[in-house]
Amino acid sequence: MISVENVSKTFTLHNQGGTVIPVMEGGSLSVAPGECVALVGASGSGKSTLMRMIYGNYLAASGRIMVGDVDVAQAEPREILALRRERLGYVSQFLRVVPRVATLDVVAEPLLALGVARDAARERASALLARLNIPERLWALSPTTFSGGEQQRVNIARGFAHDYPALLLDEPTASLDAANREQVMALIEEAKARGAAIVGIFHDVEARDRVCDRVVDVTGFTPVRVV
Amino acid sequence: MKDMAMTEAGLSPLLRVEGLAKRYGARIGCTEVSFDLWPGEVMGIVGESGSGKTTLLNCLAGQLAPDAGRVLFDTRGRGMVDTLTMSESERRMLGRTDWAFVHQHAQDGLRMNVSAGGNVGERLMAVGAQHYGDIRDKAIDWLDRVEIAEDRVDDRPSAFSGGMRQRLQIARNLVTGPRLVFMDEPTGGLDVSVQARLLDLLRGLVREMGLSAIIVTHDLAVVRLLADRLMVMKSGHVVETGLTDQVLDDPQHAYTQLLVSSVLQV
């Protein structure tokens, strides 16, 4: 479902003397449906960079990034938008929303974008919010004023609202208490069981060992830096 | 519904712009602008003032005559037609039906001495609506959709706040069910709390109506929330295009990097 082949990435800082920073070389991995692969490596080794390239958030300098039949490294914006809407989900570490929009609608939005009827989308959103222990009295409020942990759970609910066949998870269990962590682990296991291909970053080793089938060490893709 | 727009999205672009250029004497307004806009897509045009983004928007919307290029629109009747060479009456009709233009200053897009209901109804009458009761009902429905209470329908926009005027302008523009909306700094000059409300409203309308839109703004936070794609302009040239989050998070051009790094963090 997800196949990354020989991907490289450099950042060119035009306003800082044109400094070129190579951050990845020969990045490769593949994830089958129903499989969860963990990216590991020290901080700064490129885990998030690789994940962002798979999502199309960072441009790859070279290589192929296939998600289904779309090469994210080459695709037009509208192809990537359709991919994100229908097939590729991403739970980032931070929630970014329009201020004022109710939590329930924030979570239902990916379904509305797919054309799901409002009532059905809200029903699904309610079920997820309840499962992740967001008190119902908060659902009508904007999540912008919520605590960090609550925002993260809203973000997870939103990421799992639609059954994406491919999912990217950036530290989904960070800053969660035991009960909520358990719910997130269960959501991941259910996604795998229905055949989702998952790439995740987990600093929580216990969580990683439980849900991930394999580990890819991105340190192997770090270019040799001339210091 | 957006899903309908989406299933049609594979067929052909709604708008195709080829080699558009406008000069003011020796100075470049905008030049070599080409892009396709697909049904349901929202494209943001960003750049500092003087970068040519408003000139470009005005050329696209038929408010300013470009010196070169083509602006092809997928018309309901005749397919792709160059709007720059169509007859004046045909272009005027397009401006009342499939196209809409939301101005930065609501007073430029409203009739200030006509009631709110009249402002919305007028556009309906321009496309042939005649039954007073129907027009009034539809106007009230649209005022409700932009969160203007029914008891304000007979008030003039001069009695409205800036945010209300902008919402009224949006209702007036969208009541005829356009397919393409041009917006020039739609949230400019509004309080941030009013901006958020307007952004939420615009996002909902774009999704529900399957609208395509081109939004000119200097506010990167606005395009991050509203636009699917971005076009970055500098000195009349398009220097970078791409997915909105990709352009903002991984800008490639020196000017875009400068723009993004200059935003104040709150």
UniProtKB/TrEMBL annotation, chain A:
InterPro entries from the UniProt entry: AAA+_ATPase (IPR003593), ABC_transporter-like_ATP-bd (IPR003439), ABC_transporter-like_CS (IPR017871), CP_lyase_PhnL (IPR012701), P-loop_NTPase (IPR027417)
Signal peptide: none
Limits of the ABC transporter domain: 2-226
The keyword Lipid metabolism is annotated on this UniProt entry: no
Pfam families, per database record: ABC_tran
GO molecular function per UniProt: ATP binding; ATP hydrolysis activity; lyase activity
Protein family: Belongs to the ABC transporter superfamily.
Record-given protein name: Phosphonate C-P lyase system protein PhnL
Species of origin: Pseudooceanicola spongiae
